[in-house]
Request: fold
Amino acid sequence: MISLVTEINDGRLLVLEKNLSDFLPLFAQFEQGEMIPNEQLFVLAPDGTVIYHPNEELVRSRHNLGLELKNWQGPDSRGLYRFDIGQNNYIGVKRSLKIPEGWKLYYSVPRRLLIDVVKQEVVVQFIVLATAFFSAFAALGWILQRYYSNPLADVARSLSGYELNEKEAVPRTASRGILELDQLIRAVNGMTDKMRSTTEQLEEREELFRTVTEHSVHWAFWLHPDGGLRYIAPSCERITGYSAEEFYRKPALLRDIIHPDDRTLWDDHRHKTDSRGELVPMDFRIQTKDGATRWIRHFCQPIISDTGSNLGNRGTNIDITDEKLAEQRLVHHSLYDSLTGLANRDLFMDRMSHAISRCAREEFQFAVLFFDLDRFKTVNDSLGHRIGDRLLQNVARRLREESRPSDTIARLGGDEFGALLEGVNDVSDVLLFARRVQERIREPFQLDNFEVFSSISVGITLSRGKSRNAEDLLRDADTAMYHAKSLGRDRIEIFDTEMHARAVARLSLETDLRRALERREFINHYQPIMELASMSIAGFEALVRWQHPEKGLLPPGEFITLAEDTGIILPLGESVLNHACAHLRNWRTETKGRVSITMNVNLSALQLAQSDLAGNLNYLLEKYDLNASDLNMEITESMLMEYTGTVPETLERITALGTGLCMDDFGTGYSSLTNLRRFPISGIKIDRIFIASMMEREDDHKIVRTIIDLAHNLGIHCVAEGVETDLQLIELKKLGCDYAQGFLFSRPLESAEALVMIQKAVS
Reply:
């Protein structure tokens, strides 16, 4: 229950549960002894004991209600006090009443009566105050809206209309009569009028610019200084296949579509444009979206503002593909023969001039060949010019097929052709090409219903010295060609006397080489391989020699390469292997089997490529009654790298017989350790170049030691080649090398000499 409490001026209290405005009537009624219905009156003694209360139990029990008065606070600004009795809250005011001294009179009414009264009064007062407040607020709002908000909103709409490009829908702002605001409105109206005029001019210019650029056949763009794309014309899609939106999303596409071979040119041009500030043209190729190649002529220039600021670069790209194609056709017609499609004399002379210039700057050699069809006039006169032209076209095709991409083949006129071979190493390369051409021209030509046979005479000259020019070279080749014709046609002649002599010698040597097989001029020499632990003969290596009837005994270095180039190496290799097996059998017979030695035989690359090599080897072992372990076949690292295919299977079949496989010249070839694991290698031979310098050069000494350690770690034996001094021998023993061969022990010996050496070793 919440009550109102009044304090009598002598300290006594009156507790009421009523509105303040009802106090006086209540007090009067109380003094006159009148009671309000449902109101309660109770009296407390000075000590707080209940004297009178409607609840008689409180009176009988002498309940001390005064002790429960607590938290007495006040008075506040309205003269009210606040305190609690038990869990009830009370509010009190001061009033003067005549009651006995020391007594307290409490008077209360039900809570709901007070709440209803208070509520009613509060609602009335709230309505009055709210009505007054809203009336004043409405008046103020109307004033603010009329003289401030509406004008400012009009100004805002006017300004934002231009921002949203809606100027036509925005009227001028009306004046409201307030001085400052009126001045602002007039200023804004003036500004918007000017903005409207300026915007209309800009839009007119923009429309004009858009019309020009969007309907232009050229492709314009504007790059920001940081490389970003500020504008690109829609015509870019017609030229490149990429839309403007794709370029905006990825500005780097401007460079990405440039042909890879022209991007460096583009980068250099951009740098020059930025530094020079001039309008510099450049032609380059682009790759369109569908993969086609087009030519572009590019103009680019920096954009500098009035204040000197760099606004980026503006560029214009023009599609000049048709122009370039026409230009290329003109160039092609001026530099190429219309009948055969080969280079003409002018282009051929220009290429020769470039080759001569390069030859003067660096170690570079080239050759010029002059071809002339034999008896072409007879074909032309008998079968007609159309067949003659067909013959020339087919000759040109065969010349191209036999040449390298770097070579220049030209039709010099009539039935004459030229070839410029750049980067040749030796005249033998040129002769090989010339012979291939001759062989192809000898093949019959099917021309309509005619089968035509022809031949070709060839004159050759090689680059020599710095004073010769293209005309001189072509003249020399032409002279050599006519010399070939004078000797009976279908021949090859070299103009340079010295080179001619060497070429002839090579051709002569090739002829002699073929005859040497028939005449059995090749013989085997044998160099002993010593076991270093016991210093005994472990075996021999078969080394072929050519007993030339005129030049004497020739080492393999003078004819092996030629034998490989001509294919003679195959019968020659079989001859060496056959003689090696025969001599090994003979040595054992002569020594009555008292020695157990092996034979090392070198295989050529062509031999290794033969699928029946293992079968031939097995045949020789049976023929001479030898064990497979009596033979060691030597191969080089380069052979393993150059010949794959059936080579691994061939080597597996050889080792399956029980024959050893030794890698020769280890460390000078590709030196791939993978080969030692991939192929069934049983031994390696250290090349003589490392042995020769191992005592003087620490690096070579380390290489030798490393190879020996590698061999032992892999469980294979190691042979040192080219041992010539005692110091080398002593050091190899210290390093643990297994075998050695060289002039320190013996030069290569004939079979009979080797037998004597063996017999001495066992005696």
Q: What stands out?
A: Confidence is low (pLDDT under 50) at residues 1-24, 26-40, 93-98, 106-115.
